[in-house]
Amino acid sequence: MLGDGYHDVPDGKLAMVVTHLQMHAAAPTRAVSLPQGITLRQVTPTLDWYRDIFKRVGAQDWLWFGRLVMSDAELNAILTDPDMAFYTLSKDGQDEALLELDFRQPGECELAYFGLTSKLIGAGAGRYLMNHAIATAWAKPITRFHVHTCTIDSPQAVAFYIRSGFTPYRRQIEVADDPRLTGMLGRDAGPHVPIIG
Ligand SMILES: CC(C)(COP(=O)(O)OP(=O)(O)OC[C@H]1O[C@@H](n2cnc3c(N)ncnc32)[C@H](O)[C@@H]1OP(=O)(O)O)[C@@H](O)C(=O)NCCC(=O)NCCS
Asked: Fewest C-beta atoms under 10 Å: which of 9, 65, 153, 190?
């Protein structure tokens, strides 16, 4: 039980407030078209493709580390699982987004990773990709679609998810090694979160 007040976080660690959100029926969506020159496709990911898009969407700017700490074998097991689905948006011949849907829990779908690189943010592509996520998730026999986001993700994320029809239902604190101090990411990653330690 976490008492009221301030709590020290050990040097070298990150601390995030995590918001969990869910929907229990397909949220209504407003149809939008993809911005000019952007295409959506489903991907059968290789380790190299996945690690590249994960870093460019989430690690460099937002300190995502969950998939980078995995061994080849651990990550490959996820990438080749028939209950996982991966999509991207491409522009000028380069992939610039990651949508990862996890159907491994029967009757549920987790929006495991969702994001765009800075080349696509703020152009309407995020709304298109979310519409696709909602349609793809609810095309399967699920009763819950859920996601979590934290305070070192984009500050736009929580409001974007709420506008998408997700309802916040749980808040947690996550403490983890700072990936810039373990050498996983460069010290220039995530400049919105200062390094302490
Ligand atoms: C969170 C995130 C996906 C939001 O994406 P975004 O680029 O801001 O989203 P969009 O520009 O598509 O949508 C924002 C709103 O502006 C509108 N919009 C913006 N530019 C537009 C344009 N040129 N034409 C039409 N609509 C536009 C969208 O329709 C949308 O409105 P709505 O939410 O009321 O439907 C994005 O900021 C991101 O990927 N961040 C980094 C990774 C991250 O933090 N992911 C979440 C972690 S869990």
From this structure: 9
pLDDT score for 2: 84
Paired with 149 in beta bridges are 19
Q: From ligand 1's centre to the CA of 133, what distance in Å? A: 14
Q: How many domains does the chain have?
A: 1
Q: Is the dihedral of CA 105, 106, 108, 110 positive or negative?
A: positive
Q: CA torsion 127→132→135→139, rounded to 10°? A: -160
- 0.90 exceeded by pTM: yes
The residue whose CA is least distant from atom 11 of ligand 1 is: 122
CA of 1 to the centre of ligand 1 (A): 36
Question: Does 1 score more than 90 pLDDT?
Answer: no
Residue nearest to atom 23 of ligand 1 (CA): 123
Residue 67 has pLDDT above 90, yes or no: yes
Question: Which CATH number do you get for residue 103?
Answer: 3.40.630.30
Q: How much is the pLDDT for 133?
A: 98
Does any domain span residue 51? yes
Span from the CA of 34 to the centroid of ligand 1 (angstroms): 12
What does the pLDDT read at residue 103?
A: 98
